[in-house]
Q: What sequence folds into this?
């Protein structure tokens, strides 16, 4: 019973996500679903990244959260359009929420949309949002065992940002262990080491994003 | 439809959780549901805590995870009984999983059971496991805004462990901001600053736990 209901919900979500993906790509807009644990640095990465994008690459941000609109307010300070989805306790974004959020955004001339998912390394993996691809932000402080322990999430990423790399010396994190985990779970994903705090690795992230524009 | 199904599931879970709670307390066993984000340090806190407990306080650990049995193996090295629940991708533990796990544990003479939930700051809040109470492990590296952003979880805790306090100087974390958030969301919860890495604050945690034995 529970399984059937979930299957129907996921099927309806996938259809809606396909419509969103087609609508965005017909406008040459690339969209990235930004996922990661609470406090991995999803918003901080976007705050650092957006001002570094080439001036002609117009971006917008959809922020997902259980409660509060703090993240959208932080993003608004970068000068791009941002809108907040409050899931009212829900553990993931879905395509219907994203469709409503996109109605509040002027899509004209946009080349990029970042959709920041709820901080959760489990549930968001199951819900397509119409994104072009997925970026996981994983903080050094979370430990190097995360790909093996949260495989459903890491399996679906095109890019993993190993964030807070400035904390490396203060932790027991072994980069090689994380990379071996990714090789087991999702060998095709790219991995970039970044620090949203001090900016290291961010030029490589800009390049990665710009290379994938439509 | 979805809502009704969820309500039925939660109701059945609550009844089972009540049975577990009564069974454990009739044996004078206190059980703590250990919750927190992926990588907040739940297992590391238990590894540090268990050897510090008074010799007469026998403990056991139930480990919950999406995949792998790494955490149970880490705990087994402390010498206490430990058993692993694999949720096979599920985002939280439920009372039925805990009941099965408890069947694998010799309860005779136990005073404490720690149930480490799936790393997730959202879904586990809804599912009672028959625990005496809840402890959230929240890492300094996750930022000081977490109580406001994940209120459903922080609202249910008896104790919040502010872990990785050794990283404080390397982050922008403000202890007062975290404490104000907790005052808004759950003013009754205790907060202890600890480091599972260097052991600071751990004697206070031992005292907190021992004071609540049955």
A:
């Amino acid at each position: 019973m529970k399984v059937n209901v979930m299957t129907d919900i996921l099927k309806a979500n996938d259809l809606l996500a396909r419509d969103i993906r087609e609508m965005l790509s017909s406008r040459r807009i690339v969209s990235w679903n930004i996922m990661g644990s609470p406090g991995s640095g999803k918003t901080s990465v976007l705050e650092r990244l957006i001002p570094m994008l080439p001036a002609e690459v117009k971006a917008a941000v959809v922020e997902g959260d259980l409660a509060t609109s703090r993240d959208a307010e932080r993003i608004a300070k970068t000068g791009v359009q941002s809108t907040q989805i409050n899931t009212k306790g829900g553990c993931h974004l879905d395509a219907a929420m994203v469709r409503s959020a996109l109605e509040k955004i002027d899509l004209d001339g946009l080349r990029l949309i970042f959709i920041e998912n709820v901080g959760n390394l489990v549930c968001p993996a199951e819900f397509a949002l119409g994104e072009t691809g997925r970026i996981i932000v994983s903080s050094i402080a979370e430990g190097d065992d995360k790909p093996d322990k949260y495989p459903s999430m890491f399996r679906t990423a095109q890019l993993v940002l190993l964030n807070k790399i400035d904390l490396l010396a203060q932790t027991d994190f072994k980069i090689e262990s994380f990379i071996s985990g990714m090789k087991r779970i999702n060998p095709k994903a790219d991995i970039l080491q970044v620090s949203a705090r001090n900016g290291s690795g961010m030029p490589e992230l800009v390049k990665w994003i710009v290379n994938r524009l439509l």
User: Anything to note?
Assistant: Chain B touches chain A through 39 residues (CB under 8 Å).
